[in-house]
Amino acid sequence: MAPYVPSHEPQKYGVYSRSSSSHWHEDELKTYGPLPPNYSVERPSKVGYGGTSARYTELSSASSRASKSHPLSPAGLNSVPNPIVHDEQDLNRPASPFVFDAPIKYKAGTKMRWLHSDTPQAALTMALVSHGFKCKTDRTRPVDEADVRATFDSITPQEAAEPRNSALFYPADRGSIVFPEEPDVAIVARKYGCSLIVICPFMRADKMGYNHFYNIKNRPPMYARWSTGQQAQAMPLVLGCLPMHKFNASSSHEAMWFFIEANSIDPPDWYNGFYTQYVTITI
């Protein structure tokens, strides 16, 4: 793929406030995950009863027509012809000698599902449950969100203040964004004996171009990276994180968290390589 060159291709509607069209756009992402890079999306001026008037268009085919269905939704997947899914654009990240990059090459499609959680704690709980972890307070029970939240609460001020815990593990990633609450998620994952991989759009650490993820086209590439702090030493958990639209009047930078669930029948290539060596965890 060609290298990614950032550009501003803003939506026409839902830019200045959390209008119905911007709510709808985030709801589509929560339900079906991020669009493949070769699709454009144009928000509707308003959302009507019973559906949207959004336009999804596959950009690499001269004969493609706009559709109202996200290409990874049931309607999109059942369309004729089937959705065309391109690889993400190349980030041209430099290699870092003696440090392992996250061993996932992300590509949108049906090999994994993005399962939205209301909080990062809930997303982390889903990932831990999927691998058979037990509660720290009662090893006879599967881990639950209350146990995970108690572990978040156990983070000491010293841990939170440790500079290494707020820096991304892989050196080539350190110019890219660390999402809200991500350092705490990584700390808690380590407390359960896990490393943390986050699948997210490539975005600058200084938050310039934060809304480029909502571009009509040429959105920042999705990629997998190690999270903050010490990583790559234990079984990885894979979460997703997507930015919420930042409106002109807002100074906040919020994010949506997901558990990345592999298709059990046809998993992505990286999945079996990660987990065939691991059995049910009881840490």
Summarize this structure as a short list of keywords or feature phrases.
283 residues; alpha+beta; five-stranded mixed β-sheet; two-stranded antiparallel ribbon; 8 helices; disordered C terminus
Strand percentage lies at 15-25%
The largest sheet, given as strand count, sense and whether it forms a barrel, is:
5 strands, mixed
* Beta strands, count: 7
Shape: globular
End-to-end Cα distance, whole Å, is 41 Å
Structural class: alpha+beta
Poorly predicted segments: 278-283
Q: Radius of gyration, rounded?
A: 19 Å
Strand-and-helix sequence, N→C? HEEHEHHHHHEEEEH
How are strands sequenced across the largest beta sheet? Answer: 3-7-6-4-5
Please give the domain count: 1
Structure annotation, total helices: 8
Mean pLDDT reading: 90
Helix content: 10-25%
Secondary structure layout plus pairing:
Layout: H1 20-32, E1 39-42, E2 55-58, H2 74-77, E3 112-117, H3 120-130, H4 145-153, H5 157-161, H6 163-166, H7 182-191, E4 194-201, E5 222-226, E6 235-243, E7 255-262, H8 269-275
Parallel strand pairs: 4-6
Antiparallel strand pairs: 1-2, 3-7, 4-5, 6-7
Helix pairs in contact: 3-4
Summed up:
The chain is α+β, with helices and mostly antiparallel strands and 283 residues long. The protein has 8 helices and 7 strands; from the N terminus they run H-E-E-H-E-H-H-H-H-H-E-E-E-E-H. Mean pLDDT is 90; it is low at 278-283.
